[in-house]
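[job 0412] stage=complex_fold ligand=2-acetamido-2-deoxy-beta-D-glucopyranose status=START
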Amino acid sequence: MFLLVTILCSIVLWTHCLHYTDVQPQQDFDVEQFAGEWYRVGMAYENPAFIKYKNRLLISKGLLVATENGSANLSMWTMTGPKKCLPSFYEYEKTDVPGLFTYFSQRHKIIKDITMVETNYTEYGVVLKYKKMDKEYTQVALYGRTPTLRPELEDKFRKYALSLGFSAESIVIPAILDPCPIPEPKNTTEATD
Ligand SMILES: *[C@@H]1O[C@H](CO)[C@@H](O)[C@H](O)[C@H]1NC(C)=O
Ligand SMILES: *[C@@H]1O[C@H](CO)[C@@H](O)[C@H](O)[C@H]1NC(C)=O
Ligand SMILES: *[C@@H]1O[C@H](CO)[C@@H](O)[C@H](O)[C@H]1NC(C)=O
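[job 0412] stage=complex_fold status=DONE, emitting structure tokens
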């Protein structure tokens, strides 16, 4: 199966595929411990527009709230222009597998999965979006409890993204902190992305 997928990706669908890897969430992932404030300190996304404007990417701050049933709500601000802050809300529904969530992407109109690949809860977290490994949909992000992380963690993140098939140019570690405040979690079923 692995070989088949690899061959299909490299010959037929090579423009859309990253490396086929069966990414698993961290064992015994605990959403309560993962809750709270995070900074997105690194990101890889093989999208031409993202790569073109990657130098404008800022370190965004987000707040993750664990719901009673083990799902998670993430709210984030992103600066989209001078003094313009755009809030994004995501509802990550839990699945039967701890550390694996799903949500509906308004942008692509599909259900995407979120895999909590690795975290030590108090310092960093690596999160993969869309593990079917499609260049248009798949992103991997490095989160930190602080806006900058130890260089070893940034290096480890870069190597991990490269190992998944991301190009070096698609990996960004922004240097400037987004000045937007965290939005209040609000009652809406609308999630942006
Ligand atoms: C968990 O609760 C949220 C509301 O906080 C709800 O939208 C979601 O459907 C629930 N998910 C599961 C798997 O029960
Ligand atoms: C996570 O990493 C930080 C910094 O190295 C360390 O202080 C902390 O103890 C680690 N947490 C766990 C749960 O290993
Ligand atoms: C999560 O978000 C949903 C939809 O906005 C909301 O109904 C729910 O109350 C939120 N749960 C928590 C714990 O914030």
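Confidence is low (pLDDT under 50) at residues 1-5.
[job 0412] exit 0
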